[in-house]
Amino acid sequence: MNNSAIGKFNVEKITVQQEQQLTNIQHYIECALKSGEHHIVVIEGQAGTGKSVLLTKLFQRLKAGATLKGSPYYQKQCVFTVNHPELLKIYQELGRQLPGIYKKDYVRPTSLINDCHKTKKMYDIVLVDEGHLLFTKPEPYIRFTQENQLSEIIKLSRVVVVVFDFKQVMQTKMFWNKPLLDKVLAPYKHVFFNLDFQYRMQASQATIEWIDGLTNGQILPLPSNRGDYDLRIYSRAYDLYEAIKQRNIEVGLSRMLTATGFTRGPHDEHTVRMDDFNQPWDELDAQPTPWAERSESITEVGSIYTIQGFDLNYAGVILSPAFEYDATTDSIVVNPDKVTHTEIYKKTPRIQSEQEMTAFKSQVMFNTLNVLLKRGIKGLYVTAADPQLRKRLLEL
């Protein structure tokens, strides 16, 4: 594998299954372009199922066809949007590498919407990665004043192709579930394509099922057949970190990750502390190199804000103090009182009752865990800040 996050978009090596999906999607798009109506293609799939690769290959074909007389995409206006600043950097870098695609072809949703409203522009095709990160409420501070970004994008394009994974919904301002998506799609022609094969983790099916269980709070026996996937549970975060640093020396792209739940230090330091491990959180900044590719990020701890959508070779994951062990059910539960990043729980008209909000808080944390645990291609190293949970995991 290319020791760069760009390597995740190796569109020259798509599988037979992916090629068949692409053929079906392209056929739908070509028919939709002739109809004169708005159409939406929804690509569903969990973390690691190749959604971004599929979307990138599709974009490459659409842009190539736009310059070829006789192509169904000839002179069609096409743009790619993603509401994730770190992932946008990857795509914009990709635009410098793939023929016929440019940095300007990748934009944030708010920029796309506001520019179209200003210029009265209408796109033929808009591709949306990480659709579950689109806003479902106004966010005036970033100049999004409408109610729903997907609804606005649909109005501004003849065909929208959008990727969705409800297990990667992370905040109330990006609140998505199946009923809401169905409501947004209802006025328009639409079709669903489902991706269900795990491409990222080079692991046995039993190992994938064990990780899937953990993302739902289940504690299952460690599988005896793990294939070549390096799955380990550690008693100390410091020892886990030492192993991740060694993997980073050997193969690169190995990083520490965790979720919200760690309190600030005595001098208000924004750090992750457990036993002898004490490292700062990731730093979002404007430099073009994404967090995972920066050499200095080996001394930091990544979060969903810097790692969502990325591949790592090895992921070292600390289950934060918000994840606790429930001995009665022999499962992992979320303690919302220990969630320190309250931005994810802001009020939204999409959630009316306290009961719904409590359920949402728990689900968001498990969604976060789902993203973190499924970053590693070659291996996953795990420990837990909660002593009882750590003890239970070590018993496995």
TrEMBL record:
Gene3D superfamilies according to UniProt: P-loop containing nucleotide triphosphate hydrolases
Provenance organism: Convivina praedatoris
Pfam families from the UniProt entry: SLFN-g3_helicase
Schlafen group 3-like DNA/RNA helicase domain: residues covered: 39-386
The protein's name in its UniProt record: Schlafen group 3-like DNA/RNA helicase domain-containing protein
